[in-house]
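Tutorial handout. Part one gives the primary structure; part two gives the three-dimensional structure as tokens.
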Amino acid sequence: MERRHTEAILIIFSEPYGIENAQAEERIGISGAALKHQRRHFKTLVELAYGIDVDEIADETLQRVADILCDGMGVLLHGIDHHTVHVIASYLKHQEPLNGVDVIGHSFRAALPDAAFLYGCAIHSNDFEPMFLPPTHAVSPVLAPLMAIAQSKNINGKTFLKAFIAGIQFEAGLREGARRSDAAAAADKKHFPFDKHGFHPPGTVGPLGSALASSIALGLTQDECVMAIGYAASRSSGISGNIGSMTKATHCGNAARSGLEAALLCAHGLTASREILETGSGWAAVFGGQLFNFANLVDGMKSLNCFTAPGFALKKWPAHTAMQVAIHGALQLHRANHADGPIEVVVPVFNYCNRPFPNDSDEARFSFQYNVAVALIDGTVNDASFSAAKLHSAAVQDYLSRIKLVFDPDVPRDFGEMEVVVRLASGETVESDAWPGHWKTPMTQDDKSAKFNACCAAFWNTETARHYHGLIANIAEAENLKLILEGLTKS
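Part two.
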């Protein structure tokens, strides 16, 4: 493609079609008909995704991909026994098909879309999966359908990895494209970016990432993939008002199921808009706003930059991302004298994380007050920290009654820049702006392995978990994917 045509595509993707693009026609010297033809198709993005060659990807990028794939697989196994997943499993068991896949960690079979739904919920149920900037959980909507497909279809590890990379990058590109609109909304309304429309990001970008990944894994043509993305765009949803409930995990589960279902339907001939991203009332207009930057999609898929700039933050504890910063600060005061008197916690404006007395473990994972209390009392945060016994203990209830949460609108709400201040009655104060796993302070390889081992403890002992960690990290090699699936279904 000639350089001037590449520039034309980027300008079209950067601006709503109208006067600006009419002026672009004059600047670039390409006909309006050609511009409109390019605008009607987002196939450039799909072509780039289908053209990904795993063997040509830079080592640093592959290492980052391996990190989030291993983390996602560990978190999947960690969440497969969650009470939310058991509710879903009890529902799906009554619809057990003659054909389907053996659901990992459960004794029944499920159709592919249902398996993807359950896996997506499992990955997100403990709010433990990686976080991207701008905010979204991109792993669950993509890894979940790929696991279901791999159980049903003999695909090789390279195809699995290619689909995983493409789907993740697509979701990241959509969030990057909405960054300017998010920032404008946050500055104007003084609220967390995705509150501008009330949608939870993985529920909006996830179906599209799942559709792209599923299409590649299932061997759809590029045109069928375009259709699948078009269909999946109409399944974007996830109301952020459900954050802190069991339903939040289903945003990721539904994204996983919708994208896979889209690919299966379009392989059978279902059609959708070929302009669903950039058309009027299309995905970008609905979820990205007037400032949506389409160039990020093309540039991102060319460079696969989401894995390294800034990459994904891995969570140290099974709780909301902002809680990671708060917990890290509170742990430093564990041995201080905080048995009496008020405790002040200063945070950015996160209205949905102001939960002074959470009712259950799902709410507790989104409560600044609760996570600070547990960290101060126990000096550690783990699965047991969110048990009913811990939640209703006299010590925790005492601390909750003494914690005063203060919203500071001048503190950035961006997970990469935010900070939390914990101040005791004695005057001892800690400021925290990161955690082990944050973009500023990445996890060590030992930390990553320790988290994986802990997540997989119900499936494998430490030595066996180490073996499977190696297989997952090198999933593109030989029979590794087959061995992983065998290990999961036999466990």
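Part three, for discussion. The CA atoms of residues 227 and 356 lie 46 Å apart. The longest helix spans residues 59-79.
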